[in-house]
Amino acid sequence: KAGVTQTPRYLIKTRGQQVTLSCSPISGHRSVSWYQQTPGQGLQFLFEYFSETQRNKGNFPGRFSGRQFSNSRSEMNVSTLELGDSALYLCASSWGVGTDTQYFGPGTRLTVL
Amino acid sequence: KNEVEQSPQNLTAQEGEFITINCSYSVGISALHWLQQHPGGGIVSLFMLSSGKKKHGRLIATINIQEKHSSLHITASHPRDSAVYICAVVSNTGNQFYFGTGTSLTVIP
Asked: Nearest CA to A16 among A64, A83, A67?
């Protein structure tokens, strides 16, 4: 069974631009969560989607948004990029919400210049 | 304010040693996860606990809900266990995830 895939793996953007990251969950998984990891803040929860609905949201500004499609694939978007948005963005999929084992993708490394 | 605290932050052990990593949390939880992250970023979920104890190979995870504390033990440590170990909890209000800052483990041959 294929694992969680994320595209692109690496991305360089400049301040003010916007970016869209994609996550394809393991087949059959209906929950996708997104996380940001930085050296200073560690791992932080962005949001979780289940069956195309956002179930939970972390403490991030409205510039961070996401969506989930009917095939469970998910995208997250960051608008008006800031230098501090440089991070590793990870998605994870699971059967259910929150209390199921999460399977992580390899991440997208975003650098904002 | 950190909802999840891990200790120690860094740990160096000789191959074969018994290792314990601790996690304390301050919120009510529905589940606790132990994650392993190798250099390069890949994260693997080791355990998900809501009570008691789980064992997988040389790894053992325990949780005490009343004490709000969990431990991850590695028996007969090996250099391939070198990684960052992260404790994460799912709050029982709103299903929020909170992460510890991680424990960096180095096992020396």
From this structure: A83
